[in-house]
Amino acid sequence: MAGNSVGLGGRGCRRRSVLRGVGAAGIGGLAGCIRSTDEIKAEGDAEELIQAGFAETGVEPPFRTTIAITENDEREQFAQLFKATLDETGFFDVSIDSREFRSHVDLMRNAASNDVNALFVASWTGGWDPDSYVNMLFHSDNHTPDGFNVGHYANEAVDDGIDAGLVETDPDERISVYRGLQETLVADSPISFVRFSESTHVWDADTVSGWQTYPLEPGAYYAVYAPWAGTYTELDEGSEFVGDLGSDIATTDPVSMTDTVSSHATALVYEELVAVDFDGESQPLLATDWERLDGTTVRVHLREGVQFHNGEELTAAHVAGSFDRYEGTIRETDVYDWYERSEIVDEHTIDIECWREYGPLETALFNVPIVPMAAIDGEYDLESEPVGTGPYRFGDYDSGSHWRLERFDDHWFEGDDTVPATAPVETVTLEIITETASRQAALEAGNIDFSYGLPSANVSEFENDDAYGVGRHIGGGFDMVIYPCYRAPFTSAKVRRGCNMLLPRTETLETVYDGFGQLAYTPISPLLEAYSDEAFQETIADEYVRPN
């Protein structure tokens, strides 16, 4: 378990056990200690806001609700801290419901339609563009179950801000739009942001050389061989790199992927037109260069002589077909949020037309793997076996056991002064190990060379051991509490903001995550410094979060 153990009682109150039902989902849990009804009196700015919100919505304290979490030691510790904080006000009587991950996600996706009375603890991972941190979570077009606006939050000013950010192409203007949008969101507090997470990688220092930690979790294995980023890994002995995956692989078709593990498994198999390196800079990948012809059209020049793993040679038709096949799939918005159509100029030149001006077009191109014509025409099923142009091709897969890739010796890269033409690692084997304790044990026993996502306290132990290398980088993810904006008293921004002010962020960072990560007050990660640097975070916290 990461961090120190967390007490349940809270300032000397006597605990009492009682099951609490919470709406159609029937969640139950352990209620915490609360002030008696007669003793409830607002103390401080946050409680005064909550009291005003209760009066505004006609809710009498104590209000019984639940904190819903996934089965995870760190989540449990945080939930207990937040529960104790809310219970102590006397305005709430909180239980905790812990579920397996998929059950938790299903509960969130159906929460509004079932009028579920719960505060949801979850994580979100954005990317290299600010839109990825706000659109799916806050735009009213993205209410669950189609999007991930779990609380069914709706604010016209927020919708307008998100829409404006997407069509703005001037960098300075985009910064202004997204900073203003974040301020509006924190003032309204449909979600509380707890902590910006770190990407943490641990490897056997006697075996692995040259490893770099990619900031975004889906790119955990880019460092094996990423010539577009000037990065590759060598092994001091042998030619097989052994890492891990935290769960089984759901799918290997890009248009079906909704989980990070599937992205991990296929990151070295598929390639896109554009890549984003370890510093957040756009780099040519299957495209050698690109240019905007007008506000809605970009001309892309493709690399020649690129071969797919099935022997096909890359042409503009592969690009057009790869985009078109997203239509009607679960990942449709990755492309059709901006894509109108393609016009093939010649075999290695294509004009991509957007249906609107689109600011984050380069990072959008980074999200669309290019696949062979056999898959585009429906003759080949990528669900069972991926085929791309990447430096590694599919080897074999044993469900629940391992995923294996083999070096693709016909990869297009010819070498340069930084990266060799042939990847030093011949085989990449990813062992499927679902328990974090088992992943750590496998690393310590020498059964794997590398692990990602270990509990923070365990990573701290590895940092003090010279036998291991540890990579830490602020990532694109954050932990959050989602309020049910569809259900009183959380229909009131006063109640939500009061809870946001009470959130035990510092204690959570120190005791639950062992100091790993950064306190979060806004949705956009400081990885995108221009949109969310430390000074901006502090200004927002002083204005809207910290009690006066």
UniProtKB/TrEMBL annotation:
Pfam families: SBP_bac_5 (PF00496). SUPFAM superfamilies: Periplasmic binding protein-like II. GO terms for molecular function: peptide transmembrane transporter activity. Keywords: Signal, Transport. It comes from the Archaea. Transmembrane segments: none annotated. The keyword Signal applies. Gene3D superfamilies: Dipeptide-binding Protein, Domain 1, Dipeptide-binding Protein, Domain 3, Periplasmic binding protein-like II. InterPro entries: SBP_5, SBP_5_dom. Residues 283-537 form the Solute-binding protein family domain. One of its GO terms (biological process) is peptide transport. The keyword Ligase does not apply. Belongs to the bacterial solute-binding protein 5 family. This is Solute-binding protein family 5 domain-containing protein. It comes from Natrinema ejinorense. The lineage of its organism: Archaea, Methanobacteriati, Methanobacteriota, Stenosarchaea group, Halobacteria.
